[in-house]
UniProtKB/TrEMBL annotation:
This is PPR containing plant-like protein. It comes from the Eukaryota. Transmembrane segments: none annotated. Pfam families: E_motif (PF20431), PPR (PF01535), PPR_1 (PF12854), PPR_2 (PF13041). It comes from Medicago truncatula (Barrel medic).
Length: 493
C-alpha cells in the first residue's frame, strides 16, 4: 500500500485523492492506521498550510485508534515539515479523545510549542505534566527546560531544572543555552561551576557554552584556560567545527586576531583526523577579521574560501561587502552584492542593503544611496527593517553636511519608527554642524513632546567584572576534572 501512495505522489494531487477515496470506500483506512500518516505526509506536499487544519481534522475522525504511536508519528512529521500548529492540533485531539500521552508526545509537542512561539500552550502541557506525574521524567524535564529557554523564559527554565529529581547533562545544557541566548553569562558560569557538584559531566556543548560566556564577558584569560583544557582533554578537536568556531569568535571578540588565526589553521597541532571546515567555520574567521579592521584579510580569506569549494551564506556576504566599504572598493562591493543573487541564488536582506548603502555613503555617493533606498523600500517591499538603511544614509549626511538629503532620510526613518530617538539625535548633529540653532530648538521640542530618550551607554567589560569576580573559580572545574593545576599547560593554547 505504501508503494501505491508513493506512486500517487509522483503523479499529481488528483491521483492521491482517488486513492484516498478508494481507501475510504473499502474501509481500509479505518483499519490500517499507518496509512493516515503516509496520506497526511503526502497532502502536506500539495496543500497550503491554511487548508491542512480541516484536512487533519477529517483524518482524525477516521482514526478509532487509542495507540499513541500512530499519533506520535504524525506529531513528529508535522514538527519536521514546519507545521508546528498542526502538531499542537494533533496533541489536543489525543488529549480530548483520551489517547494516552507518553513522553514522546509530550516532548515533541513542547518542541512544536517553542517553534510556534506559543508559551500558553507549553504552560498547559507543563501543568498536565505536573498533574500526571511526568515531571519525574528526565526527558520531559529536558524538553520543558528547552521550551522555556528557547522562548527566553529562563526563570521558569531554572525552576524546572531545580525540580527535576534525576538531572543529566542534557538538562543542564538546555538551561545553559537559555542563559547564553539571554546574555546571562554570570548565570551560565554559575551553572557550569555547579555541574560537578551535581555529578554531571561536561560535553562539547557545555564547553562551547562556557566559551560563549567568555566571549560575552570579553574574558580572554578565562577563554585561554578553557582552550588549554580542550587541547589536553580532547583528542578530536579538529573534527568539532562548532567548538573551533566558538574559540575563533572568542579570541576575535577580545581583539586577539593572531590567536584566532592559530585556531583557524590549527598551527602547532598534530591533526589526526580530517578537518571539518564548513561555511560557519569560515564565516567566523571572516567576522574576526572584519570586526578588528583587517579588511584586506577579509577579501583574501573570502577568495580562499571559494577556492576550497565552500558556498558562502548571507553572513559571509555581509562581512565582505562591509570590508569593501571600509577599503573604498565600491565597485567590488557592488559586484559581491550582485553575486549573491546571480551566482549563489541568495536573497539580500535589509542588513545587506544597509551595508551597501553604507558602502556608497563612505565613497561619497549619497545620491546613489538615496536612489537605491527608494527603489528597495518602495518596489521590493522591505519594510520595518529599513530604519537602519535610512540611518546609514543620515549618518553619511551628518559627516558630509548634506542638510537637505539628511532631512529627507530622517523623515523616512521616523515614518517607520516615530519613537527612534537616535535618528533625532543624528539629525540635530546635522543642524549643529551648520549652525542651524533654530532647527535644533524645534527638534528638541518635538523630542520632549514625544517623550523620547536615548539609551545610555555603559562599559560592559569594566562594569560587569564587579559582579563576576568569583567567576574565576571556573578554573577550579578543570582542576576538579583533571586533578592537576590548571595553569600547567596554559601556553599550549
Amino acid at each position: 500500500m505504501g508503494r501505491l501512495i508513493h506512486h500517487a505522489v509522483t503523479n499529481n494531487l488528483s491521483s492521491i485523492k482517488k486513492l484516498h477515496a478508494h481507501l475510504l470506500t473499502k474501509g481500509t483506512l479505518f483499519i490500517l492506521h499507518d496509512l493516515h500518516t503516509q496520506l497526511i505526509s503526502t497532502y502536506t506536499s500539495f496543500f497550503p498550510s491554511n487548508n491542512l487544519q480541516t484536512l487533519t481534522n477529517s483524518f482524525f475522525k477516521c482514526m478509532n485508534s487509542t495507540n499513541p504511536l500512530h499519533f506520535n508519528v504524525i506529531i513528529s512529521h508535522f514538527c519536521r515539515k514546519g507545521f508546528p500548529f498542526l502538531a499542537l492540533t494533533t496533541f489536543s485531539f489525543m488529549h480530548t479523545n483520551h489517547v494516552p500521552l507518553d513522553t514522546y508526545a509530550l516532548c515533541s509537542t513542547l518542541t512544536a510549542s517553542s517553534k510556534f512561539k506559543d508559551v500558553n500552550f507549553g504552560k498547559q502541557i507543563h501543568a498536565h505534566v505536573e498533574k500526571s506525574g511526568w515531571s519525574s521524567s528526565v526527558f520531559v524535564g529536558s524538553a520543558l527546560i528547552d521550551f522555556y529557554s528557547k522562548l527566553l523564559n529562563v526563570k521558569d527554565a531554572a525552576l524546572v531544572f531545580d525540580e527535576i529529581p534525576d538531572r543529566n547533562t542534557v538538562c543542564a545544557n538546555a538551561l545553559l543555552s537559555g542563559y547564553c541566548e539571554f546574555g546571562l553569562w554570570v548565570k551560565a558560569f554559575e551553572l557550569i561551576r555547579k555541574m560537578p557538584l551535581l555529578k554531571l559531566k561536561y560535553d562539547h556543548f557545555t564547553l562551547s557554552a562556557a566559551l560563549r560566556a567568555c566571549t560575552g564577558l570579553s574574558s580572554v584569560e578565562m577563554g585561554r584556560q578553557l582552550h588549554s583544557y580542550l587541547l589536553r582533554t580532547m583528542a578530536d578537536i579538529e573534527s568539532d567545527v562548532f567548538l573551533q568556531s566558538t574559540l575563533i569568535e572568542m579570541y576575535g571578540k577580545c581583539g586577539m586576531v593572531e590567536k584566532a588565526q592559530l585556531v583557524f589553521k590549527l598551527d602547532g597541532m598534530d591533526i589526526r583526523k580530517e578537518r571539518s571546515r564548513d561555511v560557519v567555520f569560515w564565516t567566523s574567521m571572516l567576522g574576526v577579521y572584519g570586526k578588528n579592521g583587517h579588511y584586506k584579510e577579509v577579501i583574501d580569506l573570502y577568495s580562499e574560501m571559494l577556492r576550497e569549494g565552500i558556498k558562502p551564506d548571507g553572513i559571509s556576504f555581509l562581512t565582505i561587502i562591509s570590508a569593501c566599504g571600509h577599503t573604498g572598493q565600491v565597485d567590488a562591493g557592488v559586484k559581491y552584492f550582485e553575486s549573491m543573487t546571480n551566482d549563489f541564488k541568495l536573497d539580500p536582506g535589509p542588513e545587506h542593503y544597509s551595508c551597501l548603502v553604507d558602502l556608497l555613503c563612505r565613497a561619497g555617493e549619497l545620491n546613489k544611496a538615496w536612489e537605491l533606498l527608494n527603489e528597495t523600500c518602495h518596489h521590493k517591499g522591505i519594510g520595518n527593517c529599513s530604519v537602519s538603511m535610512w540611518g546609514a544614509l543620515l549618518s553619511a549626511c551628518v559627516d558630509s553636511g548634506n542638510i537637505e538629503l539628511g532631512k529627507l532620510a530622517a523623515q523616512r526613518a521616523l515614518e517607520l519608527d516615530p519613537q527612534n530617538a537616535g535618528i533625532c539625535v543624528m539629525l540635530s548633529n546635522v543642524y549643529a554642524r551648520l549652525g542651524m540653532w533654530d532647527e535644533i530648538g524645534r527638534l528638541r521640542v518635538l523630542i520632549n513632546q514625544r517623550g523620547l530618550r536615548k539609551d545610555v551607554g555603559c562599559s560592559w567589560v569594566q562594569g560587569k567584572w564587579r559582579e563576576v569576580g568569583e567567576i574565576f573559580l571556573i578554573m577550579c572545574l578543570v582542576q576538579f576534572l583533571e586533578g592537576e593545576k590548571i595553569g600547567g599547560e596554559q601556553n599550549s593554547s
